[in-house]
Design brief:
seven-stranded mixed beta sheet, single chain, alpha/beta, 20 helices
Length: 574
C-alpha cells in the first residue's frame, strides 16, 4: 500500500484537477486514517479512472503523462534491452530522435533501479514519461506472443521429421514438437491481439494462416504444404476430432489456459480439394460481462434503455446481421435485470457465457429440445424474465409474443437489418398485427463499425461530396485510416457499436396494428413521432467525432440500401 503521506498528496492533486469532488476527498481521507488504501478503493468504486491516477502521479512526480494508445512506437528496444528486462522494470523506449535522445515510457518513473539502468545503458540521454501500467502490460503480452509464433513457425520450417511422401511423422507430435508449439503459439497470439477467428487454409503448394481482427481477415503466415498434415493432426487432437476422418465436416472444442485465464475455441473443419480447412472461433467470454455503461450507447440512448428494461412485461428485440454484437447486448441486459427477486430463464444455442442465478438451457435438436419446445416448458417454471436466443420460426414467434402479453418480460433477437423491419418480420411469420402491437416494448437494431486507430488516424477536410452526404453547410475536419505498427497497418483498432432504438409509443402501436403496414410507414412514424434516431445519423456522429471514417459510414449505407432493395416489390422472391 502507498504510504499515507503520498496518498494524501495524490488525493489533493486529484481534487485540484477537479477529478474528484470535495466530498469524495473527505471520505478518502477518512479511509486513509482507517489504514486502508484510499486510491485502490476509489478505483474499485469507479470514482476515478486509472488514467486519472496516472495523471495525478505524473504531476506528483514531475514526469509528463502520455497515453500509449496515442503513440506510434518507433524505437527498436531490442538493441539495448530484452523483453524480460523491460517487463521487470516496467518501461519501454518509445522513440529515438536523430540526436540520439530516447523518449522512455514507464509506469514507475521514480524507481531508482530503473534510473540506474537507464543512466548506465543510455548514458543519461533520455526523457522519462509516465504511462498507464495496464497498457504497458498489454503491449508486452502482444509482443511476447508475436515473437513466440515467429519462433514456432521457423521451427516448423526447419523441422526434419518429414517422410519421403511429404507427410509429418505423427509419432514425433509430442509436447515440444514444432507443430505443437506452432498451434499453441497462434492460439495464444490470436487471443492477445484480439482476433475473433483463426483460419488455417491449405492450397496446392502452401498453407496460409489468417486472423480475423475487427471484422477483416489479415494474413499472418504462410508455410509449405508438406507441413500441413502435422498441423491438422495437432488441431484435431486438441479439439477431440476424429483424426482419421477427412471426408466430412467436423466440429470440436478446445480449452486452454492462457495467461492464467481459461480460453475456449470452437473448431470447424471443412474438406476442400487441397485438404481440410480449419476455422477456429475464439469465444471471448469477457465481452459477455460488459455492463450497460460499457456498451457504447449515447447518454440519450442509455436513458431510453433504462426505461425499456423497467417494463414488467412485453418483448424486447435485438436485430442486426450475424456478428453485430446482439448476444453481447442481450447478456448485458440480463446482468442489469438479474436481481434476487426475479426468476430468469434463458434458451440458447449455444450457451456462450454462464451467469450466476440464471437458469440457462442449451438447445438440443437431436433430443427435440428446440426453442419452441423449451419455451413451452419454461412457461410452466414460473418465470419473470425469459431470454430466447433467436426467434427462427412461426411457432417460436407465436409462443414468445403470447408469453410477453401474459405478464412475462421476453428478450430475443431477430435477423433483420433495421428496427422497423422486425415488426413486419413477425407479421410475416404469422403473428397477428394486433398482438405484435400489444407485445413489443422496443426494437434495438445494432451494427459494429471499425474504430480508427488513435495513434495514426489522419485529419482531412471534407470534400463537397462528403459534405453533401453528411448534411453539412461548410467544410469540417474528419479522419481517415492511415496504418501503423500498433494497428498492424490497417488504420483501425477495435470496433464501435452503433444503435437504432425504436421505443414503442401510442402512435407506433396504432400504425403497426393496421393491416398491410409497410416498413417505410413504420420507419416514418418512428422517426417523426417516437424520436428514433436512424442508424445512419448515429453513425454520422461517430464520423464527425473522429471515431470512425467516412468510408465505414458509406459501407453501412450500402448494406442498408442493399437490404431494402432485396425486400422491395421488385424482388418478391426475396
Amino acid at each position: 500500500m502507498i504510504n499515507k503521506i503520498r496518498q494524501t498528496l495524490i488525493l489533493e492533486i486529484l481534487r485540484r484537477e477537479n477529478l474528484i469532488s470535495p466530498a469524495v476527498l473527505s471520505d478518502a481521507l477518512d479511509t486513509i486514517q482507517a489504514d486502508r488504501d484510499a486510491l485502490d478503493e476509489l478505483l474499485k468504486n469507479k470514482l476515478v479512472t486509472k488514467t486519472d491516477l496516472a495523471k495525478a502521479f505524473s504531476i506528483y512526480g514531475n514526469s509528463p503523462y502520455i497515453d500509449l494508445d496515442t503513440v506510434d512506437i518507433k524505437s527498436d528496444f531490442s538493441a539495448h534491452f530484452g523483453l524480460e528486462v523491460l517487463h521487470k522494470y516496467q518501461f519501454l523506449p518509445l522513440y529515438k530522435f536523430a540526436d540520439g535522445l530516447y523518449l522512455v515510457g514507464s509506469s514507475d518513473p521514480e524507481n531508482p533501479k530503473l534510473l540506474e539502468l537507464l543512466n548506465a545503458t543510455l548514458d543519461h540521454n533520455y526523457q522519462l514519461l509516465r504511462v498507464d501500467r495496464d497498457k504497458l502490460e498489454s503491449y508486452f503480452k502482444v509482443y511476447r506472443a508475436t515473437q513466440a509464433t515467429k519462433t514456432a513457425l521457423k521451427s516448423i520450417q526447419n523441422d526434419q521429421n518429414i517422410d519421403n511422401n511429404g507427410r509429418k511423422d505423427i509419432s514425433s507430435d509430442v509436447a515440444n514438437a514444432p507443430a505443437v508449439r506452432f498451434i499453441d503459439s497462434i492460439l495464444e497470439e490470436a487471443v492477445k491481439i484480439g482476433a475473433s477467428d483463426i483460419h488455417i487454409e491449405p492450397s496446392e503448394k502452401t498453407v496460409s494462416v489468417r486472423y480475423r481482427i475487427d471484422g477483416d481477415l489479415h494474413e499472418h503466415s504462410t508455410f509449405d504444404i508438406s507441413f500441413f498434415p502435422a498441423i491438422a493432426t495437432r488441431v484435431k487432437i486438441l479439439s477431440d476430432i476424429d483424426i482419421a476422418e477427412k471426408r466430412i465436416p467436423q466440429d470440436g472444442h478446445i480449452t486452454k489456459i492462457i495467461e492464467g485465464q481459461k480460453c475456449d475455441f470452437r473448431v470447424s473443419t471443412l474438406p476442400t480439394i487441397h485438404g481440410e480447412k480449419f476455422a477456429i472461433r475464439i469465444l471471448d467470454k469477457t465481452i459477455f460481462s460488459l455492463s450497460l455503461g460499457e456498451l457504447n450507447f449515447s447518454d440519450e440512448a442509455n436513458a431510453t434503455i433504462e426505461k425499456i428494461l423497467h417494463h414488467p412485461h412485453g418483448i424486447i428485440l435485438l436485430t442486426g446481421p450475424t456478428g453485430s454484437g446482439k448476444t453481447t447486448t442481450l447478456y448485458s441486459f440480463l446482468r442489469e435485470l438479474n436481481k434476487p427477486n426475479v426468476n430468469i430463464v434463458t434458451i440458447e444455442d449455444p450457451v456462450e457465457y454462464s451467469m450466476d442465478h440464471i437458469n440457462q438451457i442449451q438447445i438440443n435438436n437431436k433430443a427435440d429440445l428446440t426453442f419452441a419446445s423449451a419455451l413451452r416448458s419454461i412457461l410452466r417454471q414460473d418465470p419473470d424474465i425469459i431470454m430466447v436466443g433467436e426467434i427462427r420460426d412461426e411457432e417460436t414467434a407465436q409462443i414468445a409474443i403470447r408469453a410477453a402479453i401474459t405478464g412475462h418480460l421476453v428478450l430475443s433477437t431477430l435477423h433483420t437489418n433495421e428496427a422497423p423491419g422486425a415488426i413486419t418480420r413477425l407479421i410475416d411469420m404469422g403473428v397477428p398485427a394486433y398482438l405484435v402491437s400489444d407485445a413489443i416494448v422496443a426494437v434495438i437494431s445494432q451494427r459494429l463499425m471499425k474504430k480508427l486507430c488513435p495513434r495514426c488516424k489522419k485529419p482531412v477536410k471534407t470534400t463537397p461530396e462528403q459534405r453533401h452526404a453528411l448534411g453539412l453547410k461548410e467544410d469540417v475536419t474528419i479522419y481517415e485510416p492511415n496504418g501503423c505498427p500498433y494497428c498492424n497497418g490497417t488504420g483501425y483498432k477495435g470496433r464501435l457499436a452503433v444503435h437504432e432504438i425504436m421505443y414503442m409509443n401510442n402512435a407506433l402501436r396504432e400504425v403497426v396494428s393496421k393491416p398491410d403496414t409497410t416498413v417505410e410507414e413504420i420507419r416514418d412514424v418512428a422517426i417523426s413521432k417516437a424520436e428514433m434516431t436512424p442508424l445512419f445519423e448515429s453513425a454520422k456522429k461517430y464520423v464527425l467525432d473522429g471515431k470512425t471514417s467516412y468510408f465505414d459510414l458509406l459501407s453501412l449505407v450500402v448494406s442498408e440500401e442493399r437490404e431494402r432493395k432485396a425486400k422491395s416489390p421488385a424482388n418478391p422472391k426475396k
